[in-house]
Amino acid sequence: MDMSVTAVTRNRLFTKAMVRIADRIRSLEMVAQDIDVSDEPFDTLQLVFEDHDNDYLELIGTRKGDRLFQVAVGIPTDVSLKRDGDEKLVKKVAKRLQSAVESCPLAEEKKEVILERITEAIAS
């Protein structure tokens, strides 16, 4: 399964911070690469950060039969977007990704594997 993390926002500090932590985000995006989802309703889970409250989470799902499942989440407001907050931001992104995985229509055993791998990725 492919995973993608992106942002649609006017918050330039957030987008700059996301560029700084891009390598760490890429490692999170790769944790499910070897999981076969041919029997699932989608191939790609896309996490989209938007200009909403910290707790915001919306399952957008797939559109017109495509295999991209989108989950929109709010930008974390409880972490510094300056360089000294990068490690904390990586953990917030990982938590949002875990929430997206938990909320999406995947088989439970696949969810468990992905969630564990995300946890391992941020621990290393």
Q: Brief overview, please?
A:
This protein is of the alpha/beta class and 124 residues long. The protein has 4 helices and 4 strands, in the order E-H-H-E-E-E-H-H. The protein has one domain.
Question: What does this protein structure show overall?
Answer:
The chain has helices at residues 12-20, 22-29, 86-103, 108-123; strands at residues 2-8, 44-50, 57-61, 68-74. It has 124 residues and is an alpha/beta fold. It has one domain. Strands 1-2-4-3 form a 4-stranded mixed sheet. Strand 3 (57-61) and strand 4 (68-74) form a beta hairpin. The relative contact order is 0.21. The mean pLDDT is 95.
State the main characteristics.
41% helix, alpha/beta, 4 strands
Backbone CA Rg: 14 Å
Shape: globular
- SSE series: EHHEEEHH
Estimate the strand proportion: 15-25%
Strand elements, count: 4
* Cα distance spanning the termini: 22 Å
| Residue runs with pLDDT of under 50 for 5 or more positions | none
Main sheet summary: 4 strands, mixed
- Total domains, how many? 1
Q: Helix/strand/pairing class, anyone?
A: alpha/beta
Mean pLDDT: 95
Adjacency order of strands in the biggest sheet: 1-2-4-3
State the helical fraction: 40-55%
**Count of helix runs:** 4
What secondary-structure arrangement, pairings included, does this model have?
Elements: E1 2-8, H1 12-20, H2 22-29, E2 44-50, E3 57-61, E4 68-74, H3 86-103, H4 108-123
Parallel strand pairs: 1-2, 2-4
Antiparallel strand pairs: 3-4
Helix pairs in contact: 3-4
